[in-house]
């Protein structure tokens, strides 16, 4: 039976201010199994960033629970618990790469293991494998400014995966890349997830990107309004159709 890595239950988030109240997440529930690549695809303002912020412990939910690796994350939203939780549990891949510009490719990739005080021999062993799978061996001594956008994002993927965290959260990881580079980066991410049985949750508004997932959850107006199991590379049309229906419905409302 598949092992559940992340379980989100009845999650809500309300933002209240002077004269406004927004329900950014309305009773969201879903599960992700170990090794699954799940994509959250949604219209603008559907609550994708809100969800990622909560899963990263950058923001607290109004109600609901998050279980990661079988552990209920109750006291999560208070520093220093939040930083510790992030370091232990989450690999991040951002749209803007967020690499340290003064460090080489290899030093950027090993940061999470240095923070964990792993011994150098083990670090080097993992580093070689990651550089190899990501095709970055040749660039290992380069600094981020000496790399293309696609190469920088592959470094960020290496950094996210090297500690094999329970989950990788990827926020529009190919938003700054052209179509071909975007596909290359997503193929790298997919290959890495297969190699290490890594669980990935990726957020996007782009159907082509969503097509790389094993499963797509469709978000609209703070709710999960659809789900699609990807079976082959020909899923793009189905994903597009579902997304079109969702956006058309939102125009009617
Ligand atoms: N700090 C905040 N204060 C008030 N409202 C907020 C805040 N952050 C988000 N919202 C509102 O919550 C809703 C969901 O926003 P969110 O940023 O999660 O959407 P999104 O799906 O990530 O959108 P996009 O794809 O455009 O980035 C929106 O209506 C937004 O205006």
Give your account of this protein's structure.
- This protein is of the alpha/beta class.
- It has one domain (4-250): 3-Layer(aba) Sandwich (Rossmann fold), CATH 3.40.50.
- Helix content is 37%, strand content 27%.
- The protein has helices at residues 48-55, 81-89, 105-115, 120-133, 149-161, 179-196, 207-210, 236-252; strands at 4-17, 20-33, 37-42, 63-68, 71-72, 90-93, 167-171, 200-204, 215-220, 223-229.
- Strands 6-7-8-3-9-10 form a six-stranded mixed sheet, sandwiched between helices. Strands 2-1-4-5 form a four-stranded antiparallel sheet, with helices on one face.
- Helix 3 packs across helix 4.
- It binds adenosine-5'-triphosphate (ATP).
- Adenosine-5'-triphosphate binds next to strand 2 and helix 1.
Helix/strand layout:
Elements lengths: L3 E14 L2 E14 L3 E6 L5 H8 L7 E6 L2 E2 L8 H9 E4 L11 H11 L4 H14 L15 H13 L5 E5 L7 H18 L3 E5 L2 H4 L4 E6 L2 E7 L6 H17 L1
Parallel strand pairs: 3-8, 3-9, 6-7, 7-8
Antiparallel strand pairs: 1-2, 1-4, 4-5, 9-10
GO cellular component, one term: membrane protein complex
GO molecular function, one term: ATP hydrolysis activity
Pfam families: ABC_tran
Label this structure with key terms.
253 residues; alpha/beta; binds adenosine-5'-triphosphate; P-loop_NTPase; ATP binding; transport
Strand order of the largest sheet: 6-7-8-3-9-10
CATH superfamily: P-loop containing nucleotide triphosphate hydrolases
> What would you report as the Rg, rounded to the nearest angstrom?
18 Å
Number of domains: 1
Q: What is the CATH top level name?
A: Alpha Beta
Low-confidence stretches: none
Tertiary shape: globular
Q: Which compounds are bound in this model?
A: adenosine-5'-triphosphate
Keywords: ATP-binding, Nucleotide-binding, Transport
Protein name: ABC transporter ATP-binding protein
GO molecular function: ATP binding; ATP hydrolysis activity; transmembrane transporter activity
Family: Belongs to the ABC transporter superfamily.
């Amino acid at each position: 039976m598949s092992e559940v890595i992340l379980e989100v239950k009845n999650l809500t988030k309300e933002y209240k201010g002077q004269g406004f109240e927004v329900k950014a997440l309305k009773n969201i529930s879903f599960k992700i199994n170990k090794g699954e690549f799940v994509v959250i695809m949604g219209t603008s303002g559907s609550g994708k960033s809100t969800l990622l912020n909560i899963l990263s412990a950058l923001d607290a939910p109004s109600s609901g629970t998050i279980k990661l690796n079988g552990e209920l994350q109750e006291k999560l939203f208070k520093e220093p618990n939040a930083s510790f939780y992030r370091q232990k549990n989450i690999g991040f891949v951002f749209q803007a790469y967020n690499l340290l510009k003064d460090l080489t490719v290899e030093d950027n990739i090993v940061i999470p293991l240095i923070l964990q005080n792993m011994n150098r021999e083990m670090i080097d062993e993992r580093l070689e494998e990651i550089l190899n799978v990501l095709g970055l061996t040749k660039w290992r001594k380069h600094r981020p400014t000496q790399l293309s956008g696609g190469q920088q994002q592959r470094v960020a993927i290496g950094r996210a995966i090297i500690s094999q965290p329970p989950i990788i959260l990827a926020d529009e990881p190919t938003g700054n890349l052209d179509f071909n580079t975007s596909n290359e980066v997503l193929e790298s991410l997919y290959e890495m997830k297969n190699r290490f049985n890594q669980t990935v949750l990726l957020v996007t508004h782009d159907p082509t990107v969503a097509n790389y997932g094993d499963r797509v959850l469709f978000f609209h107006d703070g709710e999960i309004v659809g789900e699609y199991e990807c079976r082959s590379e020909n899923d793009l049309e189905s994903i597009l159709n579902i997304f079109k229906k969702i956006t058309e419905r939102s125009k009617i409302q």
